[in-house]
Design a protein that fits this description.
35% helix; Glutamine Phosphoribosylpyrophosphate, subunit 1, domain 1; binds fructose -6-phosphate; alpha/beta; Rossmann fold; 24% strand
Amino acid sequence: MCGIVGYIGNRNVTDVLVQGLKCLEYRGYDSAGLAMRNNKDLKIIKSVGKIINLEEKVKGIHDKYCSGIGHTRWATHGAVNELNCHPHSNANVTLVHNGIIENFRELRKELELIGYSFKTDTDSEIIAALIDSYKGNKYDALIYAQMKLKGSYALVIMFGDEKDVLYAMRKDSPLIVGVGNGENFIASDISVILPYTKKYIDIEEGEIVKVTKDDVLVYNESGKVSKDVKIASWTILDAQKNGYEHFMLKEMNEQIDLCSKLYNKFIEEDNYSEDIPDISKYDKIDIVACGSAYYAACVGKYLIDKYVSDGSVQVNVDVASEYRYKNHFYTGSSLLIVVSQSGETADTLACLRMANKSNVDTLAIVNVPSSSIAKEAKMVMLMLAGPEIAVATTKGYFTQVLELSLIAQKLGYIKGTIDESLKNNLISEFSNLKSKITSLYDLDYSSIAGKVFDKEHIYFIGRCLDYVLGLEASLKLKEISYIHSDVYQAGELKHGPIALIENETPVFCILTENEIFDKSLSNAIEAKSRGAKLYLITTDEFEFDEHYFESIIKVPKVNDFFQAVVNIIPFQFIAYEVANKKGCDIDKPKNLAKSVTVE
Ligand code: F6R
């Protein structure tokens, strides 16, 4: 969603801000703007639509600036137009804001009563006036704003009467300071600073940060705080396309090396390493997430229920936006697992906080090490996937499934439901996973895409693990190609959904499970008898009459603990190829944001 960049130093401020905003594009936005300072004045430039529009507007500016702030806006309060676009100024204060101020209407009325007037419909302009309204020093004004504001914010603030300083503070929305040599950066996303520095400082809630070109001073209610300067483990190359046409394609390809990276991290001397959390002491486990991460959680539940549990552990999964409004009857040995690539998804974070408040143990499977979820969970299993830039997750989902599978395997091994010989087989399969998935990268997905890209509806069917996989396959297709698609349990087809099948309706049949192959196959044939065109994803172990199908993709058969990560690869490629044929904006699909930081 919205993104922030701030810079103070000797480089060309306009260039740093525009490049920074470009790094933030992937998060989703509808307008963008900059505010820049020099000795004489403060210049604000805004534009609706892509950053390139803003770039056009700043081309003619040759003034030298010493500091500036920039913002990509994803509208929440007020229409998408230049007026509502950030930065916002009121009186002596100019700022950019990520987040939502819940009490902005009350604050607006209070401020209007004391003479402030407002040009925009945004909650953000109120913050500028609120800070300005405090009669005292700047630090106290920011503390005052922290006390008055309800909701979430990451803010970078410039005062009209102090030209060489940027101030920053945050609550429930990420913000870091990038530490340079004679220059400093502020950003909502680490990828912004990577072209210039790997050193950064985390800003904690309640802190106020004063940034000049040579110093980063951090204060909280007890006074000056000494902060650790951290070193980012991600590099600028991780955050670039490296010759791939799209980030999505690059990230799908990175899954191959992620197999070995995760193997080396989580397997030690032919055993599950200490880095895989031991969750055997819990008898009630809730797994909570949103979107694809939720579908990964469904795979985790399936594996524990079917192959690991001896009846002593009950696993529930829920989408975070539902879970947070339900009653939870935690026991003394309950665990909440949250799964999140970004580590900032508002609903998932809210569930984590709820559980932390109830003193329930929490475990986060999370990709961004500096994210709120990574910082606030009691236990953390990092996904190690590197920056994921394409809005539609691929390597994020892949890693989440793999890590949940490893947690399940270790749990089964400790509980004794996975014996020594099965454990050895699983670890050996894990070491071969890279070669198994690599074989799927050269298949011809383009011809399948060519047969379905002009259809209005596409359906997926499968049972059990195949059904759970269909959820992610269907989401991937709809979010980047905008084709309506849905997934049904194969056995449910004739209880209603088969009414949707018309002549030539494409139905992707996921049939990779031995026990249920024949049953699902006959459900698929029932759809074909009503006119469906069938596309089959199966493993190399079955024999069947191939003439029912338009195309057949055979994935390598692996143990069910790894089958989901193998099976997803063809669906990522099919979605990608379909979207490509339709000319869609694959990395930045319409209406979607990478990190959903509002409810
Ligand atoms: C789909 C997708 C989303 C995310 C969801 C959760 O391709 O990317 O459904 O999975 O928004 O995001 P994180 O994992 O960042 O919490």
